[in-house]
Amino acid sequence: QITLKESGPTLVKPTQTLTLTCTFSGFSLSTSGVGVGWIRQPPGKALEWLVVIYWDDNKRYSPSLKNRLSITKDTSKNQVVLTVTDMDPVDTATYYCAYILYGVPGLWGPGTLVTVSS
Amino acid sequence: EIVLTQSPATLSMSPGERATLSCRASHSINTYLAWYRQNPGQAPRLLIYDASNRATGIPARFSGSGSGTDFTLTISSLEPEDLAVYFCQQRSSWPWTFGQGTKVEIK
User: Fold this and answer.
1) How many CB atoms lie within 10 A of CB A118?
2) Interval A100-113: pLDDT, tens
3) At A14, which helix (H) or strand (E)?
4) Does A24 touch chain B (CB under 8 A)?
5) Shortest CB distance from B96 goes to which of A49, A64, A111?
6) Rounded distance between C-alpha atoms, residue A68 and residue B80, angstroms
7) How far is B97 from chain A (nearest CA, A)?
8) Is the pLDDT of residue A20 over 90?
9) Is the pLDDT of residue A80 over 90?
10) Hey, CA dihedral for B97, A46, B68, A97, is it positive or negative?
11) Sign of dihedral through CA atoms A98, A101, A105, A110?
């Protein structure tokens, strides 16, 4: 059974750096064809892909946020870490991580709401 | 960036009715389109991938069709849990993008 769960702070101040961790089970991020992605959803709005990391450490970043995002994986801990720098109130959103197999995002974590406010 | 436009924005339906949702891409995406259902307070759940393939555990009342730029999600007979927001998403080219969603609500 595949599960994913996001963790990190629920409140950050403007200009701070957000660090979120996706802890997963039921698959290995060293298996060919596997990836983990991050998606966010501002309250009441649509979804936005942020970044994907693949089993071979290939990474794809959203062009609009590329300068602010960083993603790493720890295969031994079954974790993927997302870093977003220079947070702003417009970055307030629920952040999801998702399991990707051969390009299909098949299963998502429950999400974590991050609020940016001073 | 490929823009996905969903219609209608809201669909007022009753349980048992047939629902048809549309997603149009700004450029051809072959069949690299997925559909998700998002119930209130929950994460999106994959229903259909690659335009017409049901994901694991998804009931047969959900079907998808289309290719190129025009796609359809059909729910043959609405169940109460289907009253939700539906998103389409393309993986033809990066950045992957979502439509703005169609809300299926109680008439």
Assistant:
1) 8
2) 999 999 999 999 99
3) none
4) no
5) A49
6) 41
7) 7
8) yes
9) yes
10) positive
11) negative
Instruction: Say which DSSP state B99 is in.
Output: -
A114 — phi, psi (to 5°)? -115, 125
CA distance B96 to B51: 15
Q: Which two tokens stand for residue B12?
A: 């007022």
Q: What is the dihedral of CA B27, B29, B34, B40, to 10 degrees?
A: -10
Q: Is the dihedral of CA A102, B4, B13, A41 positive or negative?
A: positive
Kindly tell me the burial class for residue B80, based on how many C-beta atoms sit within 10 Å of its own C-beta (0-12, 13-18, 19 or more). Answer: exposed
Instruction: Read off the tokens for B47.
Output: 């229903």
Give yes or no for residue B36 having a pLDDT over 90: yes
- Are the beta carbons of B98 and A46 separated by less than 8 Å? yes
Q: Could you report the per-residue pLDDT of B82-97, keeping only the tens digit for each?
A: 999 999 999 999 999 9
Question: Phi, psi at residue A95, to the nearest 5°?
Answer: -105, 130
With tokens 């979120």, the residue in question is A20
Interface contact flag, A46 B100, Cβ < 8 Å = yes
On whether any CB of chain A is under 8 Å from the CB of B96, the answer is yes
pLDDT at A6 over 90: yes
C-alpha distances in Å from residue B93, one per residue of A25, B27, B28, B81 = 28, 10, 10, 32
DSSP for residue A67 = G
pLDDT number for residue A69: 97
> Which residue is it, tokens 């870490």?
A81
Which residues from chain A sit within 8 angstroms of residue B5, using beta carbons? none
Q: How far apart are CA B86 and CA B45, in angstroms?
A: 9
